[in-house]
Amino acid sequence: MTSNAGTEPRTDRTGPDRSASMRDAVSDSWSVRAAAGRRLAADAEVPEVAVVLGRLLLDAHNTFVTRETAEALLLRGDVPGLRLVLAALATADAQSGDQIQSAILNVCEQSREDIERLSELAAALVPDRDAGVREEARGLLGPGR
Q: Which of 18, 38, 98, 111 would disulfide-bridge 13, Cβ 3.0–4.6 Å?
């Protein structure tokens, strides 16, 4: 989970760009929805965007959308991105859950540094107000946490 948060310019989508991405998030095309998830991940802390990202993470029609959105959120390397992913994981069906778990492995568990960063972020979510997020965060930290 090599994070460049804070070192790269933000790519927030505002105005027409965000509106287009929000429209794309409900497209009939799985590839358009996946691209929207990747773009909207930059604005995960915006409440209306977070709602859309939550739907994309649990896309009922294509798990590629789930995985792409989860990876984009995890690449942020921050608590808001991980929180959305864990909230989705807590309610995901088996197929979506597998895709989210794969995204966590691919983005957050490739090096010792990645794992340490994931543990730091998960520890910050253990006291979260959402019980599902709390439980998933504890699960990332291992038994006894």
A: 18
